[in-house]
Write a structure and sequence with these properties.
Length: 159
């Protein structure tokens, strides 16, 4: 009987510290996974030692983990409170798809605008050069041939 009591006491003394060690802190894997997903109101990349917002988030997340909440519950709590802005990366469902697609759409739209603008500028540039060349000089055929020969001579000198 005494032996059983001693063994049970020893067992509980060994078991109790392991139960308290199972509590979550800032070094636990679960904590790091949750914090890696949160933007912390734009303070996620700040230095922890000087950022009071990060201290608040770290305390809240460790408290929720120790209360037994899962990672998904914690993330959904912050998304419910702050919306998709609570996350570093937008969700891949629903309105998060819009957030992922907007940069690509913006790039394509900008490329199309630039392409049409360049096309219009080059088309206008050719027209104005052709008009200016014929209307302002009014050269005869002999003058044109002399000018072409002179330009060709100068081009050959350089190349």
């Amino acid at each position: 009987m005494k032996r059983r009591v001693i063994l049970l006491t020893a067992f509980y003394l060994i078991l109790i510290p392991t139960i308290t060690l199972a509590s979550f802190d800032v070094n636990s894997k679960e904590f790091k996974r949750v914090i890696a997903q949160l933007d912390m109101q734009g303070h996620a990349d700040h230095e922890f030692s000087t950022c009071s917002i990060q201290h608040v988030y770290y305390d809240e997340v460790t408290e929720m983990l120790n209360e037994g909440k899962s990672e998904k519950e914690i993330i959904s709590y912050y998304v419910d409170q702050y919306g998709q802005a609570a996350l570093r990366e937008p969700d891949t469902k629903g309105s998060g798809i819009i957030a992922w697609g907007m940069p690509a759409f913006g790039f394509l739209f900008g490329a199309i605008v630039v392409a049409f603008g360049l096309k219009k500028l080059t088309a206008n540039g050719v027209d104005t050069v052709e008009k200016r060349g014929t209307s302002s000089l009014n050269l005869t055929e002999i003058e044109k041939s002399v000018l072409e020969k002179t330009i060709e001579k100068e081009r050959r000198k350089l190349f």
